[in-house]
Design brief:
With 103 residues, the protein is α+β, with helices and mostly antiparallel strands. It is built from 4 helices and 4 strands.
Length: 103
């Protein structure tokens, strides 16, 4: 049985979207240990993220490119303790958190 041409394109497009979403997730997954960026999901500024980050044992590295981001260094398990406070940890890619970031 032959699949209609528009339906074939829908299948290929769906697979491409899934692959791109997977790549995005993997590129932002925080490392086991090293540089990470903390993002406050409630919009609070990075200054208010400093105390909770220090309480979990993370060391501060600077401010991220947006007001609700803070660059830290430490272990992923330490950063995971901030999830219940509305803060997620992401990998700190050089292009996003490199020389152009606020310090």
């Amino acid at each position: 049985m032959r699949v209609p041409l528009p339906l074939r394109y829908a299948f290929v497009s769906g697979q491409a979207v899934l692959v791109l979403a997977g790549v995005a997730v993997l590129s932002l997954w925080p490392p086991r240990e090293g540089a990470m960026v903390l993002v406050a999901l409630d919009g609070r500024d990075a200054g208010r993220l400093a105390a909770p980050a220090l309480d979990t044992g993370l060391s501060l590295s600077g401010f991220g490119p947006f007001p609700n981001m803070l660059l830290v260094s430490g272990e992923r398990a330490q950063a995971a303790r901030l999830l219940d406070r509305g803060v997620i940890a992401l990998a700190a890619p050089g292009g996003l958190c490199g020389p152009g970031a606020r310090t």
